[in-house]
């Protein structure tokens, strides 16, 4: 079970506590003012904190984007937009998949996060927003499907207890095909995003080494089956990297992959890392135009929080490197 507290007392006490944790986003038992003082003190003594607190926080976009570093090794970004509140959560501290353009990939895997640590990131953002997030994206540090059981446990709690619909929870994967198939068999219809980043195996294997195990065609086939299983539209995430994956022939190849499906392509100008730059905007726009001209559904993603490196594990990467 994801909820890690034994409450005791009368049966309604557990409901009361859960309501404080999941709907009023309490950080400690001391805040639960309608619990009898003695019980509150006992619980606070037994569980000094309800969820991990950040060791550092940053803000950008006039406070609309907030980022937190937990345990010196994983991070969360909360983004408020006029029409939604999105939290980008980590599923692992570091990541063992070693994508060459990714700051997190350069850290290696530090550890898997527990289901409660994943849920707690959503609760941290809820506290910041003073209401529950509308969208949860598992696009922070780590490969969610490499920490399958904890991620699925967290999704159940975010869905059942925090009350965020599974449809508003996005799981982003670089393409662990057997786990995509497993996720397709789960009863909750989460949204799936495939981080493709290149439409050809040669380029993709150089960027995403796991591609040697599950190449482009297999990954795309798996997300199309997921789409059929859940009736949920899937997304291809494509980090635009200067002179690596932004050529017109790659736009054509990508269009071929999605032709005849309703897969949505999200182009994300890369948050630069050493050795990998972001293409100039006109090239990103030309790439999008080419794809649209070939019938693909395309958007260019707004890169919120770039001034605090909010795109991909960079602050945690620096904290871990510093020790
Ligand atoms: S891109 Fe994702 S899967 Fe690849 S190393 Fe970074 S966090 Fe891991």
Descriptors for this entry?
11 helices, elongated, 18% strand, alpha/beta, single chain, binds iron/sulfur cluster, TIM Barrel, ten-stranded mixed beta sheet, 323 residues, DNA polymerase, domain 1
Helix content: 25-40%
Small-molecule binders? iron/sulfur cluster
CATH-defined architecture of the largest domain: Alpha-Beta Barrel
- Report the principal-axis shape: elongated
What this model shows, in words?
The chain has 323 residues and is of the alpha/beta class. It folds into 2 domains: 11-49, DNA polymerase, domain 1, CATH 1.10.150.530; 51-322, TIM Barrel (Alpha-Beta Barrel). The protein is built from 11 helices and 12 strands. It has helices spanning 11-23, 37-46, 103-107, 115-129, 148-162, 177-184, 201-207, 216-230, 248-258, 281-293, 314-322, and strands spanning 56-60, 65-70, 74-80, 85-88, 92-94, 109-112, 135-138, 169-173, 191-195, 235-240, 264-269, 297-300. The strands form 2 sheets. It has a 10-stranded mixed β-sheet with strand order 1-2-3-4-7-8-9-10-11-12, with helices on both faces. Strands 5-6 form a two-stranded antiparallel ribbon. A hairpin with a 4-residue loop joins β3 and β4. α6 runs parallel beside α8 (216-230). The longest helix has 15 residues, at 115-129. The radius of gyration is 20 Å and the shape is elongated. Bound molecules: iron/sulfur cluster. The site of iron/sulfur cluster has 11 residues, from α3.
């Amino acid at each position: 079970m994801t909820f890690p507290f034994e409450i005791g007392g009368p049966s309604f006490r557990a409901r009361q506590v859960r309501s404080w944790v999941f709907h009023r986003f309490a950080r400690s038992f001391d805040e639960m003012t309608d619990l009898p003082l003695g019980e509150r003190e006992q619980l606070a003594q037994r569980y000094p904190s309800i969820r991990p607190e950040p060791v550092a926080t940053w803000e950008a976009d006039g406070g609309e984007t907030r980022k937190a570093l937990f345990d010196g090794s994983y991070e969360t970004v909360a983004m408020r937009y006029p029409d939604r509140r999105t939290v980008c959560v980590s599923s692992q501290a570091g990541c063992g998949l070693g994508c060459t353009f990714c700051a997190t990939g350069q850290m290696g895997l530090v550890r898997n996060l527990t289901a409660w640590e994943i849920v707690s990131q959503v609760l941290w953002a809820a506290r910041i927003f003073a209401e529950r997030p509308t969208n949860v994206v598992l696009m922070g540090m780590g490969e969610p499907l490499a920490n399958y059981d904890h991620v699925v446990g967290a999704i159940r709690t975010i869905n059942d207890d925090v009350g965020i619909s599974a449809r508003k929870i996005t799981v982003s994967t670089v393409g662990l095909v057997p786990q995509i198939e497993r996720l397709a068999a789960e009863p909750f219809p989460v949204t799936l995003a495939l981080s493709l980043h290149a439409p050809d195996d040669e380029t993709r294997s150089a960027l995403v080494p796991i591609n040697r195990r599950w190449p482009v065609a297999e990954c795309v086939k798996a997300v199309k089956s997921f789409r059929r299983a859940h009736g949920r539209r899937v997304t291809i995430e494509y980090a635009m990297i200067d002179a690596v994956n932004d050529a017109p022939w790659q736009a054509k190849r990508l269009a071929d992959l999605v032709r005849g499906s309703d897969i949505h392509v999200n182009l994300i100008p890369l948050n630069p890392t050493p050795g990998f730059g972001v293409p100039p905007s006109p090239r990103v726009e030309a790439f999008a135009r080419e794809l649209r001209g070939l019938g693909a559904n395309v958007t260019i993603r707004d890169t919120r929080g770039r001034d605090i490196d909010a795109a991909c594990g960079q602050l945690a990467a620096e904290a871990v490197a510093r020790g």
